[in-house]
């Protein structure tokens, strides 16, 4: 993919939050309401504990939304653990390594980051509930065998000899159901699932963005924000709330 752009998601999310902080401090336009952004960390046992504190609660927990007591077994999310390998190009061959090498997307993917570093991913462990970023030695050995020795080597046979494994990291995917339009995010009001009410418009869900989340997270976020402020789920396209009909 010669014109592909490789994005470090962790750095991107930090920058996105910083941009929100800057936006909140800017002087509002005439007549506009002042904005405020605060990060609160508070342990809760149930979502209903937040009902009295906030006008609305938007649940953006990725795969872990399916672990919440009120939503467990009630939203059509499949979980799938994935592991990626962090590799370093060996010093003795750096002169022959192109920093601007194109990333590769195939049975496995290879993403290049600068003159020495690249990542290879990812494994698929369906129905896993392990969301830890850390990877055990046994899990890591299996992932290396699959990613480096089989999948990546099929695309780039020399990769095993040119690189050294520097580490592994894992995560848990939130995979939405497949529809005629593809695998679409799960959006909408979930009051009925959380509190049994259908009229409060208090609790909202945004999850299941999948691998294309980087492309349309801003759009679905805006849709959700508009719906929350208007207390109107009808502003969300029907395709993104159709999952409710299969519960």
From TrEMBL:
Entry-linked Pfam families: DAO
Record-annotated FAD dependent oxidoreductase domain positions: 52-226
Gene3D superfamilies per record: D-Amino Acid Oxidase, subunit A, domain 2 (3.30.9.10), FAD/NAD(P)-binding domain (3.50.50.60)
Superkingdom: Eukaryota
GO cellular component annotations of the record: cytoplasm
Protein name per UniProt: FAD dependent oxidoreductase domain-containing protein
Organism: Cuscuta europaea
Upper taxonomic lineage: Eukaryota, Viridiplantae, Streptophyta, Embryophyta, Tracheophyta
